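User: Could you go from structure to sequence for me? I need the amino acid at each position, not a summary. Structure tokens:
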């Protein structure tokens, strides 16, 4: 989750279609000052996708404003990059970590990608589709339901978003 938070805050080092280099201490390095951040207008949401072996496959940051693409949410970008890297759409065994509760689009995409585990940070009562407004990820009518862990490092993740909207 600290890596996802780092992506959300710095918005850095995400080469187009590629995978960001992983600094040795990436998990320890979350900038304390959320104001000293990204010169981007996008809501700071970061996602990291890990393979079945725990290795980082791809990252994504919300780039809706940057790209003018309504679907450029952190989760979707991480999914696309991981699928491209693996050469397949089916990402079973993989884990997606994201700083904010996924919306309906992202939750739907995660189900379609057969992601095995979803870990998210802050709850999003207005649009969340992993338990807040809907629970697309665990809807029993769907044929695939990932394991879901919500509210991880919630205070830290929520603080980054609050700082952005302040
Ligand atoms: Zn989304």
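Assistant: Here is the amino acid at each position, in order:
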């Amino acid at each position: 989750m600290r890596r996802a938070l780092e992506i959300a805050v710095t918005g850095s080092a995400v080469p187009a279609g590629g995978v960001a280099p992983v600094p040795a201490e990436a998990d320890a390095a979350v900038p304390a000052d959320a104001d000293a951040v990204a010169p981007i207008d996008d809501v700071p949401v970061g996602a990291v996708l890990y393979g079945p072996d725990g290795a980082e496959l791809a990252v994504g940051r919300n780039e809706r404003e940057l790209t003018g693409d309504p679907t450029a949410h952190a989760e979707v970008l991480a999914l696309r990059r991981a699928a491209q890297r693996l050469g397949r759409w089916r990402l079973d065994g993989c884990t997606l970590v994201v700083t904010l509760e996924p919306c309906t689009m992202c939750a739907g995409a995660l189900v379609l990608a057969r992601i095995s585990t979803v870990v998210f940070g802050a709850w999003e009562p207005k649009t969340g589709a992993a338990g807040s407004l809907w629970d697309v990820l665990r809807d029993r009518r769907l044929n695939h339901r990932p394991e879901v862990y919500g509210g991880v490092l919630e205070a830290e993740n929520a603080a980054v978003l609050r700082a952005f909207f302040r």
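One structural detail worth keeping in mind: The two ends are 23 Å apart (CA to CA).
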